[in-house]
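User: Before I run my own analysis I want an independent prediction to cross-check against. Here's the chain; please return only the structure tokens and, at the end, one sentence I can use as a sanity check.
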Amino acid sequence: MLENNNFSEVTTAGKRLHMQGDCENCFGLCCVALPYAASTDFANHKDAGQPCTNLQADFRCGVHTQLRQIGFRGCTVYDCFGAGQKVSQHTFGGTDWRKAPDTAQQMFEVFPLMRQLHELLWYLTEALQWPSTEEIHGELSALLAETERLTNLDPDSLANLDVAAHRAAVNAHLLQTSERVREEALQALPTTKGRRKTYGRGADLIGANLKGADLRASNLRGAYLIAADLRGADLRKADLIGADFRDADLRGADLSDSLFLTQFQVNAAKGDRHTKLPAHLTHPAHFSSE
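Assistant: Structure tokens:
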């Protein structure tokens, strides 16, 4: 039997607080800086840097409680990993783009870069919690410290930062983490040769019937799981970094100690109260209570 990971969620929760969106301390950056196109996720089109028509003077959404009903499902899925308040209150010192319009363009450019850095902080924080990564804790800790340092750069330095290069260095160690955790988990499983299907990075599983599937310790990095049927599937210790869960059915699925799952991914899926998530994630409001 594959045991649940027993690392300290209390310690992890404390570290993750600044990696969670705090709209009360943000200047509505996701509602202005990011573009979107009319689609099943958005009711209309908006260019980058153009404030959403639903954004109020206090930087709050005027239709927050009705977003899904009026065609803005994409807004309910998005998660900035805490980048919004970091850019608003730290990078630009609490001065909003309305009061200082000359800073607006740079603020909007820096925001998505900060989001990438905060996402990496999320993953690195998790990687350090897995006992299997003890041998590379020094390298992971150094990358975490460097990523934190980069988030504290001034606006000009952030705007010129090669985030892609830093992300590549971090990803190499996240892959090592995944391989170590999954290999240890696979060794604990009974012999299943020929009975468990394996998948590789970026697997095309759009609309796949994976109901009740044993996906423990699987490599689903970047997998396309759009509208896949994962009801009752076992995804413990599966690497889910970058997996696309849009409209995937997770009712009754067990993701309780999957690797690198984010709230952003969970928000994009369907589920119910029987969907098991890691302790640091929450069941979205649209998950069924049945």
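Sanity check: Confidence is low (pLDDT under 50) at residues 1-11.
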